[in-house]
Amino acid sequence: MQVIAGRYELHRRIGAGGMGAVWLAFDRKVDDWVAVKLLAQRESAGLLRFVREQSLRIEHPHVVAPRGWAADDDQVALSMDLVRGGSLATLVGDHGPLPEPYVAVIVDQLLDALAAVHSHGVIHRDVTPHNVLLEPTGERRPFARLSDFGVAALLDGPRLTEHGAAVGTVGYAAPEQLARTDPDPRSDLYGLGILGRHLLTALPPDHLDGASDGPLWDVLCALSDNDIHRRPVSAVAARAFVAPHLPSGMPWAHDPDAPCVFEHLTVPRELRPQTRVALPRPARPAPVSRKPAERDTPES
Predict the structure, then answer these.
(1) Domain architecture of the chain: domains with CATH
(2) How far, in Å, CA of 252 to CA of 142, rounded?
(3) How far, in Å, are 8, 77, 90, 186 from residue 173 at the CA level?
(4) Phi/psi of residue 19, each to 5°?
(5) CA 232 – CA 227 distance, rounded (Å)
(6) What are the Cα distances from residue 36, in Å, to 20, 21, 57, 132?
(7) What is the rounded average pLDDT of the residues 155-162?
(8) Each residue of 103-139: pLDDT tens digit?
(9) What is the pTM of this model?
(10) Is residue 126 among the annotated active site residues?
(11) How far apart, in whole angstroms, are the C-alpha atoms of residue 49 and residue 112?
C-alpha cells in the first residue's frame, strides 16, 4: 500500500480521469474514504491544472469538487468525494436506453450543476457519460454528480491547457471547442445535449441524428445545436425548457426492466486501514472546586 504525504492511503485503482489514475484511498486527515487522482509532478502543465482544480471548491450537491490535496516527492494527490454508484457510461452499458422521465431528471440535475459551475466563472468543457457519477439510489430517482474538472477553463483567467489547443472528448466537444475559440458556458450545454440524447438511445454521438423524436428529444437537440447562438443562453434558461418534462414521481418503477443504480465501490473489510492517525483532542479543564465561598465576618 502506498501512502502519499503521510495522508492518503492508496488501496486500489478505480479509474482514470482527464489527468491521471483515480484511486480508492483513505484520507487519514479526515478519517474517511475518498477518491484520489494521482499525477506526477514532472508534468508541469498538469500540476498547474491540479492546483487550479483545488481552487474550484464549488459547493453543490450535484458537483464533485476537489476537497484536499497533498504532494510527496514526484507525485501530487487530489482528493474528491467517493461516489459509489458508477458513471452514466456504466449505467447505459448495463441497461441500454433509459426511460425519458429518468433522463429528464438527470439532465435537470446536471443543468443545475452547470448553473453553479458557470456562476463561479468556470467552464467544464468535458460533459460526458464517464464524467457524470451516480450515487447508488437503486430504482429510485437518480442522483447525478458532475465530476472531473481536469480540462476546465476560467472565463477570466489563465487557460489550464496549452493556448489554442482543442479540448474535450470527440463527439461531446462543441464545434467552437474544436475550433479552439475562447471558452463559453454554452459549450457545456452542447455536451449535455449530446449526453442526454445518448442516454435516450444508447447510441454513440455520431449516430444520433434522426435516432429518436419527442418533446424532450427536441429540447436536447436545441441544447446541442451546432450553432452556439441557437442554444439556450444559459443553464438556468435551459432548465426552464426541461421543467415540463420532469416526472412528479417515478413512472419507470413499474417497468420490469427499470434502471437500477447499485453500489459499485464497496470497501471490503480487508481494505479497511489497520491504523488511523488520531486527531488531537483538547485537554480537559481541571475540575472546579465546589467548596462554598467563605463569607466575610462583620466586624464587631
Answers:
(1) 2-82 (3.30.200.20), 88-254 (1.10.510.10)
(2) 11
(3) 33, 27, 20, 11
(4) -130, -10
(5) 11
(6) 10, 8, 16, 16
(7) 60
(8) 999 999 999 999 999 998 889 999 999 999 999 999 9
(9) 0.83
(10) yes
(11) 24
